[in-house]
Amino acid sequence: GAGLSVRDLVVRYAARRGPGTTAVDGVSLDVAAGEVVALLGPSGCGKSSLLRAVAGLEPPAGGTVAFDGEDLAGVPVHRRGFGLLFQDGQLFPHRDVGRNVAYGLEVLGVPRAERDVRVAELLDAVGLAGFARRAVTTLSGGQRQRVALARSLAPRPRLLLLDEPLSALDRQLRERLALDVRATLRDTGTTALFVTHDHAEAFTVADRVAVMDAGRLLQVGTRDELTSAP
Ligand code: ADP
Ligand code: ADP
C-alpha cells in the first residue's frame, strides 16, 4: 500500500553483560499517504527507537519497514527520502533563516529562483513571513523550531519523522505550536510520524494516535475511537 508500513518491528540494544534491552518488541503500524500519526507513550517506552529504525538510523533486530511497498532493509538514511526533525532543530548558526530553509534545496541542486519562491512559501506557512534575512541567533526558541520545521519540509520529504519537536519549549508555546504544526503538515499534504509523550499534543497534531508502552503498541485510533473505547 501507499505510505509507511512497519511490520513486527524489533529494536534491541546489546549490553556488555546480560540480555540487553528490547526497546521495540514486535510493533506493526501503518501511516497512510497524507496521514499524520502520533506515537504516544511515556519516556523510555521505545518511541524514539521505533522512529530511528524507520529513519534507518538503527538496524532492526526483526521485522520490516517498507514505504510505498518497497522494503527499506539496507537502504541508507539519505536514500529513504524522509525528513527528520528533533527536539533541538540544530539550525546552522552561520546561515540566515532563509539559507537554513534553503539548505536541502541547495543539496538537491534546485535553482536559486525556485529556491527563493519555495523558501518564502514555507516561511509563510510556519508564520515567519519576512524572516528570511534574519540571523538565527536573534530568534526565540519557538521561532527556531518553526524554521527547523520549514527546513525539514523544504525538500518535500515523502515522510516526515518528528521526535518530540516541541518538548524543549514552555507549555503555552507548545500548545500554540502544536496547532501550527498541524496546519502546516495539512497544508503541505505531508505524511508524518510524530513522537511525543504529551497526550494533548498527540491528539492536537495527529489524525490517529498510536499508544505505546514498554516496547509494544497498546492501541491505535482517532480521538473518537480511543476515547469511546470501553
Ligand atoms: P522513548 O523514546 O519512548 O523515550 P527510547 O526508544 O529512547 O524510548 O528508549 C527505549 C528503551 O531503550 C529505554 O529503556 C532506553 O533506556 C533504551 N535505549 C534507548 N537508546 C539506547 C541506546 N542507544 N543504547 C542502549 N539502550 C538504549
Ligand atoms: P514565537 O512562537 O517564537 O513566540 P511569535 O509568533 O510569537 O513567535 O512571533 C515572535 C515575533 O515575531 C513577534 O514580535 C511577532 O510579531 C513577529 N512575527 C511573527 N510572525 C511574523 C510575520 N509573519 N511577519 C512579521 N513578523 C512576525
Describe, in plain words, how this protein is organized in 3D.
It contains 8 helices and 10 strands. By secondary structure, the chain is α/β, with parallel strands linked by helices. It has a 6-stranded mixed sheet with strand order 6-7-8-3-9-10, sandwiched between helices. It has a 4-stranded antiparallel sheet with strand order 2-1-4-5, with helices on one face. A hairpin with a 2-residue loop joins strand 4 and strand 5. Helix 4 packs across helix 5 and helix 6 runs parallel beside helix 7. The longest helix has 17 residues. It is globular, with a radius of gyration of 18 Å. The two termini are 31 Å apart. Bound molecules: adenosine-5'-diphosphate (2 copies).
- Strand runs, count: 10
Largest sheet: 6 strands, mixed
- Which percent range fits the helix content? 25-40%
Q: How confident is the prediction overall: mean pLDDT?
A: 95
The low-confidence runs, each spanning 5 or more residues with pLDDT under 50, are none
Radius of gyration from the alpha-carbon trace, in angstroms? 18 Å
- Which H/E pattern describes the elements? EEEHEEEHHHHEHEHEEH
Number of helices: 8
Shape: globular
Distance between the termini: 31 Å
Which small molecules are bound?
adenosine-5'-diphosphate
Structural class: alpha/beta
Enzyme class: translocase
Protein name: ABC-type quaternary amine transporter
Pfam families: ABC_tran
Keywords: ATP-binding, Hydrolase, Nucleotide-binding, Transport
